[in-house]
Amino acid sequence: xxxxxxxxxxxxxxxxxxxxxxxxxxxxxxxxxxxxxxxxxxxxxxxxxxxxxxxxxxxxxxxxxxxxxxxxxxxxxxxxxxxxxxxxxxxxxxxxxxxxxxxxxxxxxxxxxxxxxxxxxxxxxxxxxxxxxxxxxxxxxxxxxxxxxxxxxxxxxxxxxxxxxxxxxxxxxxxxxxxxxxxxxxxxxxxxxxxxxxxxxxxxxxxxxxxxxxxxxxxxxxxxxxxxxxxxxxxxxxx
Length: 239
Known about the structure:
Keywords: DNA-binding, Phosphoprotein. Residues 138-237 form the OmpR/PhoB-type domain. The protein is of the alpha/beta class. The chain folds into two domains: 11-127, Response regulator (Rossmann fold); 141-235, Orthogonal Bundle (Arc Repressor Mutant, subunit A), CATH 1.10.10. The protein is built from eight helices and eleven strands. α6 (167-177) crosses α7 (186-192). The termini are far apart. 36% of the residues are buried. Mean pLDDT is 82; it is low at 1-7 and 133-144.
């Protein structure tokens, strides 16, 4: 392996359930100049990310529990994080699905670790030296103080009230807060929930929104979540 040409210690989190492969990737990336850490599942990754966000994430799809595609869908709401899927799934439909979910690159196993390192460097050059934040950055003043915290498992409002989310609620709000003030279609929300728009009932999306509003009311929140007839939902305070 060649030594990296830059001295920047980009923080990389590897999410891989194969213990030997995870260790091999972490050690190789460290040797190549990255600040790498490994995690075996989504839960341990989210906990570490909430405390110390990474610049780039290398994610396997076939993880126990929450899969890598779900992690990518959630992370795309966090500005500055570059995502590389590394998986044995090499069919075109799998690659397209991974990129549509938000991955910046898709590599099929077995992956040469020099290639992985160069992919990470290329993504860093393209994105620039942007430090990631732990929560999605709102795009409009109307939602400036609404944010997801603690690995996106807690919603906080402008008054500092907090509401713990289920995995479904978290995926739903993560997608909406990725585009604050903008209409998000039911199809996009279904995709964020890990479903297929062809066999996923749109009524389930409405049920999630209804449940979130009622849950927010119980903790004293007035959730700025509005349905848009014939389209989907928008997260924004009224003008």
